[in-house]
Design the sequence.
């Protein structure tokens, strides 16, 4: 019997909580980290409106990270695709910590163009031709 593969795909539609932090690894690969807030609205049992914001940590690499670092800022409306990944580490006190993040593979900026001339086109690292990206 053939072993089945799983599917790890995430789509997020929300607003940036802050400007991405863009850094470069020792070998020059770009890494951008940022968070996206996703609002959920509902009415409670008495009909009163309720709202909750779920903050999602996002990491992007390479050219997509550079695009995020150069064209995203707090409040930008984005749609992104990627996969979930959990990383673990030991903190300074020796406690084991874990963080689940979306590793972004594609991005679409949904709000109006900014002063940098971004047109809201889709940017990604998979199945993308050079002519689709104005950068």
Sequence:
């Amino acid at each position: 019997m053939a072993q089945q593969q799983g599917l790890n795909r995430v789509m997020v539609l929300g607003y940036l909580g802050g400007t991405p932090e863009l850094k470069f690894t020792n070998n020059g690969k770009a890494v951008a980290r940022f968070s996206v807030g996703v609002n959920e609205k509902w009415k409670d049992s008495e009909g009163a409106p309720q709202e909750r914001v779920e903050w999602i940590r996002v990491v992007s690499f390479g050219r997509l990270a550079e695009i995020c670092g150069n064209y995203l800022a707090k409040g930008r409306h984005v749609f992104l695709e990627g996969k979930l990944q959990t990383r673990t580490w030991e903190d300074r006190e020796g406690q084991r910590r874990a963080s689940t993040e979306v590793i972004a593979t594609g991005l679409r900026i949904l709000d109006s163009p900014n002063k940098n001339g971004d047109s809201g086109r889709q940017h990604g690292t998979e199945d993308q031709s050079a002519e689709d990206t104005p950068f």
